[in-house]
């Protein structure tokens, strides 16, 4: 069997996005290996790789491991000096490289250019591997089931985010609204260090709320998302896990925008204030609003989010 190597060293969300590319390579008859950093290996397995190779401590060690595999193709999604050197050291008959558009995204932040470019990173991954995969339209897709007839709807809310500016501040109010819907049950997840002031969400006493904040590892989080009916959260790796399992996912965008390509309307239901001229303000999100207002998140009311979720359910 042919073998393909996909290089995407980090991070968890970026690795989860590789799932369509990996599925396409498999459809084309490749056994797919993914090279990533050790702490993201679970994301690599979730993305569907046949084998996840954990990036070792040195470049030569990595080259030694990879050169024994005799890859027929290498797809470099990292596109940096380290991945370039690996491609040089690892012999392969066919090499493809994804352009991360870092300069383009910086121009979006600095001058608000290219904001109408909403092609997803997942699509760009497939384009980078043109000739190796059958393309986006040919990748097999799961059928979506209706939630209307389900007796209980499990809404998973993933609170918090690594970057403070990505944290929507009204999850508590949203949960109160959801609990007024008779068949809704709520599961709370998140990393405690990424939740603002150990959010009041952590102290809900309603029996219809399962509080798992800080109580799951990455594998446990993936299991919870897979078992949920609706996902609600910020722009984080958890959102990409929801896309991976084809869950209806409501995502709040503040300092980041669709044009970055990671969270787009093709895969998500997006809550954002498109009228603000200050967006985007940071490549990753940032921890402090540059103008001190935080309007990008504060201007998204919980009532609108609740209406979106009601529409998903019905």
What characteristics describe this protein?
single chain; 314 residues; alpha/beta; Rossmann fold; five-stranded parallel β-sheet
Task: Detail the topology: elements first, then pairings.
Elements: E1 2-7, H1 12-16, H2 19-27, E2 30-36, H3 41-46, E3 51-54, H4 59-67, E4 73-76, H5 81-89, E5 95-97, H6 102-111, H7 121-128, E6 153-158, H8 171-178, E7 184-189, E8 209-211, H9 218-227, E9 230-234, H10 237-244, E10 249-252, E11 269-271, H11 295-298, H12 302-313
Parallel strand pairs: 1-2, 1-4, 2-3, 4-5, 6-7, 6-9, 7-8, 9-10, 10-11
**Chain-averaged pLDDT:** 93
What's the number of extended β-strand segments? 11
End-to-end span in angstroms?
A: 46 Å
Give the amount of beta strand, in percent: 15-25%
Q: Can you write the helix and strand succession as a string?
A: EHHEHEHEHEHHEHEEHEHEEHH
Based on Cα principal axes, name the global outline.
globular
> Measured on Cα atoms, how large is the radius of gyration?
20 Å
Strand count, sense and closure of the main sheet?
Answer: 6 strands, parallel
Question: What is the CATH topology of the largest domain?
Answer: Rossmann fold
Give the helix/strand class: alpha/beta
- Say which CATH homologous superfamily of the largest domain is assigned: Glycogen Phosphorylase B
* SS field, number of helical segments: 12
Task: Based on the coordinates given, report the CATH architecture of the largest domain.
Answer: 3-Layer(aba) Sandwich
Strand order, largest beta sheet:
8-7-6-9-10-11
Q: What is the CATH domain class of the largest domain?
A: Alpha Beta
Low-confidence blocks of residues: none
Structurally, the number of domains stands at 2
Helix fraction by DSSP (H/I, runs of at least 4): 25-40%
């Amino acid at each position: 069997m042919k073998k393909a190597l996909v290089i995407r060293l980090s991070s968890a969300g970026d690795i989860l996005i590789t799932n369509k590319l990996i599925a396409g390579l498999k459809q084309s008859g490749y056994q797919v290996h993914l090279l990533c950093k050790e702490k993201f290996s679970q994301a690599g397995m979730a993305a569907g790789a046949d084998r996840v190779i954990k990036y070792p401590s040195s470049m030569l060690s990595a080259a030694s491991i990879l050169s024994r595999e005799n890859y027929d193709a290498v797809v470099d999604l990292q596109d940096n000096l380290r991945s370039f050197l690996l491609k040089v050291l690892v012999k392969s008959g066919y090499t493809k490289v994804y352009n991360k558009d870092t300069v383009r995204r910086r121009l979006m932040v600095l001058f608000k250019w290219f904001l109408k470019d909403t092609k997803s990173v997942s699509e760009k991954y497939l384009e980078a591997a043109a000739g190796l995969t059958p393309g986006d339209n040919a990748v097999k897709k799961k059928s979506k089931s209706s939630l209307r007839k389900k007796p209980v709807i499990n809404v998973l809310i993933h609170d918090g985010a690594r970057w403070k500016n990505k944290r929507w501040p009204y999850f508590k109010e949203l949960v109160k609204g959801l609990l007024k819907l008779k068949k809704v049950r709520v599961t709370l997840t998140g990393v405690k260090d990424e939740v603002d002031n150990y959010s009041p969400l952590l102290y809900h006493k309603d029996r219809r709320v399962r509080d798992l904040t800080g109580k799951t590892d990455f594998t446990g989080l993936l299991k919870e998302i897979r078992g949920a009916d609706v996902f609600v959260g910020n722009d984080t790796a958890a959102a990409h896990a929801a896309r991976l399992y084809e869950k209806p996912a409501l995502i709040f965008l503040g300092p980041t925008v669709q044009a970055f390509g990671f969270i787009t309307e093709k895969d998500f239901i997006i809550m954002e204030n498109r009228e603000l001229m200050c967006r985007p303000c940071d490549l990753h999100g940032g921890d402090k609003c540059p103008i001190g207002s935080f309007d990008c998140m504060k201007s998204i009311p919980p009532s609108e989010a609740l209406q979106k979720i009601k529409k998903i359910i019905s």
